[in-house]
Amino acid sequence: MFDLVFTADTFAMFGPDDPAVWSRTTRMSRHEPFTLLAALAAVTSRIGLVATASTSFYQPFHIARFFASLDQISGGRSGWNLVTSSGLSEAANFGLTLPPEHERYRRAGEFAEVVKGLWDSWDEDAVVADKEAGIYIAPDRVHTLNHHGEYYEARGPLTMPRSPQGRPVIVQAGQSDAGRSLAAGTADIVFSVERDLANAQAFRADIRARAEAAGRSGDAVKVLPGAMVVTAPTRAEAEDKFDRLQRLIPDDLGLIMLSRSIGIDLSQYSPDDPLPKFNISENVGHRKVIADYAAREGASIRQTWRELVGSRSHRVVIGTPAEVVDDLAQWFESGACDGFNIMPATFPEGLDDFVELCVPELQRRGLFRTAYEAETLRGNLGLEIPERGER
Q: What string of DSSP letters covers 292-324?
């Protein structure tokens, strides 16, 4: 009954200088996402299939073709999580030096425009398949793009008919000023990192206002904050599940992960020292959550990683199904979000818990579907099919 399944991606492990991290985690052991999602498309019929692909390491034609192909294979269920990437280890695998954030986002904006233009290469009725005339494609219904921009050149047309959902869905997660503007101008879904209700309300309002300033409807962008849900029939059981998971994180690994998150080597401090100040201009969503938490709670380094590393800075919702749904409903009904990016703490148990315990409660309250409304991802998200040429 979920709208989509999302797989992140990266082109590097943590790096040769971080064996203490990459040798002890599976986060950097990843299938290439297009192959994985194409396989999932064959055994699913409604759920959306969303993968990360970086504008720093591909060309627009690659991305347009990959996701258009997945869209055709899945019957209109693909989505592109647009990221610009900031990892030095990733860039090193391509012999690249990444530009500053503001330039990466400017490049990404043009990249997205080229991709959408290529997706619009074909009219909906371009394939005529006229056996008697011997014509498969009407030539006047397939168009070159001839893009000549600041960063990219692309002639087109794309080698793939128009998507069953108009265009694949675009997802974005930037929370800096540049990231928000890119999301508001290009994205259909925004993944966010929010732990505070008021901040979440302000973020969603800002994205909607920026979308309208870009000539779009505020309703055209759905904001989905991450929520790591831990649930059980009783609150005590749910809290015990979470506590057992937290105890599995070794102190040294927690320290390394927090160091990476904030860009400071914390090994030079005592774990019981206050978390030092750090720059939040990069990786704004996660870093701002960490900075806000440490300042609000007066937290030590140890307290901060114990609170935030396991959930990757996202909000943790712990309780019975009714308590979890109360919490999610409050955020949804108060305008803090349009839904959630559910992040089970464990697989498959955590996902099974949410499906078996929370989904029936959501359905009972009329907050969750009992059947899919459409066959495409865009349809199930309640998004309009874009007109050809619409940006």
A: HHHHHHT-BHHHHHHHHTTTTT-EEEEE-HHHH
Model confidence, pTM: 0.92
Q: How far apart are CA 353 and CA 24, in angstroms?
A: 26
Number of Cβ within a 10 Å radius of residue 79:
27
Q: Which residues contact 303 (CB under 8 A, 6 or more apart)?
A: 297
The DSSP 8-state label assigned to residue 339 in this structure reads S
Report if residue 222 sits inside a domain. no
CA distances from 184 to 5, 102, 206, 391 (A): 22, 16, 9, 11
Instruction: Give the up-direction half-sphere exposure of residue 388: CA atoms within 13 A in the CB hemisphere.
Output: 17
Parallel/antiparallel/unpaired status of strands 341-342 and 222-231? parallel
Q: What is the longest distance spanned by two Cα atoms in the chain?
A: 80
Residues 159 and 237 in one domain: no
Residue type, 285: G
Query: How sure is the predictor about 18, in pLDDT bands with cuts at 50, 70 and 90?
Result: low
Paired residues of 274 in beta bridges: 300
Read off the tokens for 81: 């999580």
| pLDDT tens per residue, range 180-222 | 999 999 999 999 999 999 999 999 999 999 999 999 999 999 9
Q: Does 236 lie in the same domain as 109?
A: no
Cα–Cα distance, 390 to 105 (Å, whole number) = 21
Range of the domain at 147: 4-172
CA-to-CA dists, residue 233 to 102, 230, 299, 318, angstroms: 47, 11, 31, 11
